[in-house]
Design brief:
Elements (H helix, E strand, L loop, with lengths): L4 E5 L4 H13 L2 E6 L2 H11 L3 E4 L5 H15 L4 E4 L4 E3 L7 H29 L2 E6 L12 H21 L3 E8 L5 H4 L9 H4 L5 H13 L3 E4 L3 H10 L1 H22 L6 E3 L4
Helix pairs in contact: 1-8, 3-4, 4-5, 9-10
Length: about 270
């Protein structure tokens, strides 16, 4: 089996970094992209394989230049993994409008730009695989995560639409993990909007990375951990009851946090997953 050329965005830390490590262990050739050049270079040195390209997915010209360079150098792109993204905690009016625009530009439109640049090459080559890293927040509303949630809903819908359009030539999978142990969920939420019981059960980035790579061979909408699946199924079957329960849980948690911190804060932290 030939070595696959796998382009990974947001590869300098978190989930993206673990995806790169697992790809290298599998014998694939990871082409790593992120805004920060230094961590990418260190990662390729650690792996002993792959290539690093600084790239901002909000810059269409930079995205096209990256894809063209990869095609020119290696002749093909077998797999694209859109992982670049960031989020912000905070109430709807507390998060500045620039963050709403920024999250949509990075989390959703960044994947769209990269996909538009890659798909023509995949069609020319006769096929390919795309994996988009979304979130369980892309499947159900999340209070105090409105901007992030909206960007992930968009990414899930985009992924499903593309898979319907291009299958079986190009298959598109989307991973919807719960909270992952990254700076976003570990400690950079001074408002403490995220419920403590969930915060104690953060997913390990390597676990999420394994699921992401699994979607290359078996594309679909995948929710991890599986304990979220029954709640989402209940939401689909009984949306009004689900909303009442979710609202009651949120109000209870919010009132407890409000009592502890009457002032409250918001947190806006740019992270690559």
């Amino acid at each position: 089996m030939r070595k696959r050329i796998v382009l990974v965005t947001g590869a300098s830390s978190g989930i993206g970094r673990e995806i790169a490590r697992l790809l290298a262990r599998r014998g694939d050739f990871p082409v790593l992209a992120a805004r920060r050049a230094e961590p990418l270079q260190k990662l390729t040195e650690e792996l002993g394989t792959g290539a690093a390209f600084p790239c901002d997915v909000t810059d269409e010209n930079a995205v096209q230049a990256l894809v063209d360079e990869v095609k020119r150098t290696w002749g093909r792109i077998d797999v694209l993994i859109n992982n670049a993204g960031y989020g912000a905690f905070g109430g709807f009016l507390e998060i500045p409008m620039s963050e709403y625009e920024g999250m949509m530009q990075t989390n959703y439109l960044g994947a769209v730009r990269m996909t538009r640049a890659v798909i023509p090459h995949m069609l020319e080559a006769g096929g390919g695989r795309i994996v988009n890293i979304a979130s369980v927040a892309g499947l159900t509303g999340s209070p105090n995560l409105a901007a992030y949630t909206a960007s992930k809903f968009a990414l899930v819908g985009f992924s499903e639409s593309l898979d319907l359009q291009y299958a079986p030539v190009i298959r598109v999978g989307v991973l919807c993990p719960g909270p992952v142990s990254t700076p976003f969920f570990r400690g950079e939420d001074p408002s403490r909007f995220f419920p403590a019981p969930i915060a104690k059960r953060l997913l390990d980035p390597e676990t999420v990375a394994r699921h992401a790579i699994g979607l290359i061979d078996r594309p679909r909408v995948l929710v991890v951990p599986r304990l979220f699946a029954p709640a989402l199924a209940f939401r689909a079957l009984f949306p009004r009851i689900y909303r009442k329960i979710a609202k009651k849980m949120y109000d209870h948690h919010f009132q407890r946090q409000k009592a502890k911190d009457p002032v409250g804060n918001s947190s806006s932290t740019a992270i690559e997953k």
